[in-house]
Design goal:
Helix content: 40-55%
Number of strands: 14
Strand content: 5-15%
Strand order of the largest sheet: 4-13-12-11-10-7-6-5
Radius of gyration: 20 Å
Largest sheet: 8 strands, parallel
CATH architecture: Alpha-Beta Barrel
Oligomer: single chain
Distance between the termini: 42 Å
């Protein structure tokens, strides 16, 4: 592993974030780092973990911890799945391929976003582990059905359907920094934002050698070809998923389906009624509706409502292995991470993603040993105390 991401330079996810900030132009870093409106929910996702404290069992010898778990029919080496992160190719030319390869080498699963710059077949073949496909209805139903068919033929293990993107959230950093102009086709519109690109020559060289702004190779519109990569607001405005869509999606996909974006017990029950194998408690990393609760805070009530009828996963605010353990203690089967690995991708490509997973896995194992708990499966609510606000 390159010294740039080894200890002591990189000892936690926050260190990878700093490296990503130094390498990326402001518009790309803030797209990755930012949230919607005043970013209240973005902050609360992290703050919620501070309200949960541990209740360890001391004087317990734990020479070895069992970290393995099973998610959506797939065996994972530890309970962390890489979440879908759109526009990953803007962060590093290898983008989704690098992230999937690192996930496979770490023995865990990668989730490919519809808004991706590499062909889903190439991403699937890059990983030695399971790969899930996250579905937006971009390009219409015909394009979505074609992508589902390709994912099934390529060997994807599960479908992740995101339900919280009726429109894009108001991500104010993106407007200020020129994200729409970067992705648009008007060269003159990019001129005011050139200084931030020129200030990051390494990123700019890689971006230009990679061909600039790519199309979306997994959104192929019949008779037109791959959809151009456009700004996220335009991309999501015609891609909303409704409960009625779940019926034809189930017919098109015979494997397990996870419903991502659940924050209420009513939606959890509706997802169960529609045949979900897993529910992902998620507020889209604080990037959609600002002012909704942190994922961790609503996790226990959704676990109770599901009552074992489906797996419950969660994302939002995971920055340390201790965060992973807290989520599992509160009922999650596993967690999804987005920014935590994307900072590594932006900082150093595949090795950066591998380093982020190494950090989290080591943290999880250390936390279990300090708790006096020998396995992930043995974690429960007795190991934590939740301090109510």
């Amino acid at each position: 592993m390159p010294r740039s991401v080894e200890s002591p330079r990189v000892v936690n996810i926050a260190d990878l974030r700093l490296l990503a900030r130094r390498r990326l132009p402001r518009v790309v870093f803030d797209y990755l780092d930012g949230g919607a409106e005043g970013e209240f929910t973005l902050r609360e996702n992290c703050n919620a973990f501070e309200e949960v404290t541990f209740r360890p069992r001391h004087a317990v010898a734990v020479p070895k911890c069992e970290l393995r778990t099973r998610v959506l029919g797939c065996d994972l080496s530890f309970p962390v799945v890489l979440a879908p992160v759109g526009y990953s190719r803007l962060m590093h030319p290898e983008g989704e391929v690098a992230a999937a390869r690192a996930a496979g080498m770490a023995g865990t699963a990668y989730t490919l976003s519809t808004i991706s710059g590499h062909r889903l077949e190439d991403v699937r073949s890059a990983s030695s582990g399971p790969v899930f496909y996250q579905l937006y209805l971009m390009g219409g139903r015909a394009a979505a059905e074609a992508a589902i068919q390709r994912a099934r033929s390529a060997g994807f293990s599960a479908l992740v359907v995101t339900i919280d993107t009726l429109v894009a959230g108001m991500r104010e950093r993106d407007f200020r920094n020129g994200m729409k102009e970067l992705l648009g086709g008007n060269p003159l519109a990019k001129l005011p934002f050139l200084p931030q690109f020129l200030a990051r020559p390494g990123w700019l060289a890689g971006f230009l050698l990679d061909g600039g702004v790519p199309r979306l190779p997994n959104v192929v519109i019949p008779g037109q070809g791959p959809l151009p990569l456009i700004d996220v607001g335009a991309a999501l405005s015609s891609a909303a998923v409704t409960w009625e869509d779940l019926r034809w999606i189930r017919e098109a996909w015979s494997g397990p389906i996870a419903i991502k974006g659940v924050l209420t017990t009513d939606d959890a029950r509706r997802a169960l009624d529609e045949g979900a194998s897993a529910i992902v408690v998620s507020n889209h990393g604080g990037r959609q509706l600002d002012g909704v609760p942190a994922s961790l805070r609503v996790l226990p009530e959704i676990v109770a409502a599901v009552n074992g009828r489906a797996e419950v996963l969660m994302d939002g605010g995971i920055r340390r292995g201790s965060d992973v353990v807290k989520a599992i203690c509160l009922g999650a089967r596993a967690v999804l991470i987005g920014r935590a690995y994307a900072f590594g991708l932006a900082a150093a490509g595949q090795v950066g993603v591998a380093r982020s997973l190494e950090i989290l896995r080591t943290d999880v194992e250390r936390t279990l040993k300090l708790l006096g708990c020998a396995s992930i499966d043995a974690l429960d609510g007795s190991y934590v105390h939740v301090h109510k606000k």
